[in-house]
Amino acid sequence: METKHMISLLVENNAGVLSRIAGLFTRRGYNIDSLTVGETQNPRNSRMTIVMTCDEAALEQIKKQFNKLIEVIKVTELSYDNALTRELILVKLEADEEVRSRVIEIANIFRARIIDVTPGTLTVEMTGDEVKISGFLEMVRPFGVLELVRSGFCGIERG
User: Fold this and answer.
1) Phi, psi at residue 8, to the nearest 5°?
2) From CA 67, how far away is CA 127, in angstroms rounded?
3) Are strands 45-54 and 3-12 parallel, antiparallel or unpaired?
4) CB 84: neighbour CB atoms within 10 A?
C-alpha cells in the first residue's frame, strides 16, 4: 500500500548533488511530492527534505540508493509522529472591500500574515504543518485563489 514518507538527507553542498538525487527518482519512475533544500549550520553541507508517496519496498530501495551516493552523509526517515514539519505558502486571493474583512479574520485565526493589499486582492503568508495549511486553504478557496505558491515541507526530528 502506498503511503506518504518523509526522508531527510544530509548531503555535501556540491554542484550536481540535487540532480543526482532527483535522478534516482526519475530512473525508477517515482514521483517527488515535495522537495526542499537549504544550507545547514555548516556551509559545506545541505539538508534535503523529500516527501514521496510509495510503498515500503520502494522506500527501502530509494534509501539504499541514497546511501550509495558518495555525497550523501546521512539518510533519516522522519515519521510524522516524531518530527516537526513546516511549510510556507503564499496565497493571492480575490478580496474586494466587501469580503476583505472576512479574509483577514480567517488569516488571523490561522496566524497568517497579510503581506500585500490591492483594491481587488490580498496576499497572505502562512507557515504550518500539513493539517494547518490544508485547513486554511479550505477556508479561503471560496473567495477565489488567484495564485498559490508552496515551499514544500521542511522537517526535523523532535528532541
Assistant:
1) -110, 125
2) 31
3) antiparallel
4) 12
CA–CA separation, 159 and 150 (whole Å): 27
Structural domain spans, the chain: 3-78, 84-157
Say whether domain 84-157 belongs to CATH 3.40.50.300: no
Q: Closest Cα partner for 49 from 19, 18, 20?
A: 18
45 contact partners, CB below 8 Å, separation of at least 6:
10, 11, 12, 13, 39, 73
CA dihedral over 89, 21, 48, 61, signed as positive or negative: positive
CATH 3.40.50.2300 fits 3-78, yes or no: no
51 within 8 A of 150, measured Cβ to Cβ: no
Q: What is the pTM of this model?
A: 0.82
Q: Which residues contact 138 (CB under 8 A, 6 or more apart)?
A: none
Q: What is the pLDDT of residues 78-129, one digit of tens each?
A: 987 888 899 999 999 999 988 999 999 999 999 999 999 999 999 999 999 9
Sign for the CA dihedral angle at 137, 139, 140, 143 comes to positive
Within this chain, domains 3-78 and 84-157 share the same CATH topology: yes
